[in-house]
């Protein structure tokens, strides 16, 4: 299989009043294109730190990260990131929310709007495009957040406990929805969670 993400000997150390804290030490990981990988561990073990480093939002102390064989330093346009909260903008309607990432990247045009509308239709959210986040269920909000991320066409999607704010039943449904969406779109996913059953699912 084709390798898409490789992490080599990544470490992260923090300094505080008591001295040095090792958050990550010599992490090695290789993910092939199209894989759906879960990292499971308790709170505070460095899962989110690792995702932030991969996304270029946090500096590593040492080590190297490669995306599609190219060494990556900083933020990469090939990475999409979903956080624990959906972070939808309450004053924007659903269509406007899904266009936000494209706006930030300066890629908002008629063609990109059409592509986003197609994603909304494909995943049963088009009828809600003029609604506001407060009018949607938690599961629907997460699907909107996913479409906003997919709109920028990432090669790799990072999910940081992205379903933890949902109740158990909704979490299982949304996890299944998002897994199927990512499979259809051919996107590689790296998920971190402290929930063993969610990670296995």
How would you explain this protein's 3D organization?
By secondary structure, this protein is α/β, with parallel strands linked by helices. Helices cover 34% and strands 28% of the residues. The protein has seven helices and eight strands. The chain has helices spanning 47-55, 94-98, 100-104, 110-122, 138-150, 168-185, 196-200; strands at residues 3-16, 19-32, 36-40, 62-67, 70-71, 79-82, 156-160, 188-193. The strands form two sheets. The chain has a four-stranded antiparallel sheet with strand order 2-1-4-5, with helices on one face. A four-stranded parallel sheet has the order 3-8-7-6, with helices on both faces. A hairpin with a 2-residue loop joins strand 1 and strand 2 (19-32). It is globular. The model has no long low-confidence stretch (mean pLDDT 86).
User: What integer is the average pLDDT?
Assistant: 86
Q: Portion of residues in helices?
A: 25-40%
Structural class by SSE content: alpha/beta
* Shape annotation: globular
Strand proportion, as a percent range, falls in 25-35%
> Termini, distance in Å?
23 Å
Low-confidence stretches: none
């Amino acid at each position: 299989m084709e390798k898409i993400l490789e992490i080599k000997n990544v470490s992260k150390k923090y300094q505080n009043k008591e001295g040095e804290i090792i958050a990550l030490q010599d992490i090695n990981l290789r993910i092939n294109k199209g894989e759906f990988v879960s990292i499971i561990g308790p709170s505070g073990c460095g899962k989110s730190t690792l995702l932030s480093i991969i996304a270029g939002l946090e500096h590593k102390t040492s080590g190297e990260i490669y995306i599609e064989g190219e060494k990556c330093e900083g933020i990469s346009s090939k990475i999409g990131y979903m956080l624990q909260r959906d972070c939808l903008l309450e004053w924007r309607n659903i269509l406007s929310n899904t266009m936000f990432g494209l706006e930030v990247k300066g890629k908002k045009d008629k063609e990109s709007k059409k592509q986003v509308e197609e994603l909304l239709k494909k995943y049963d959210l088009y009828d809600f495009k003029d609604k506001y986040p407060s009018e949607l269920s938690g599961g629907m909000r997460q699907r909107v957040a996913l479409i906003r991320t997919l709109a920028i066409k990432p090669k790799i999607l990072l999910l940081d406990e992205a379903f933890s704010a949902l109740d158990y039943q909704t979490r299982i449904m949304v996890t299944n929805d998002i897994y199927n969406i990512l499979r259809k779109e051919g996107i590689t996913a790296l998920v971190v969670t402290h929930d063993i059953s969610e990670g296995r699912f």
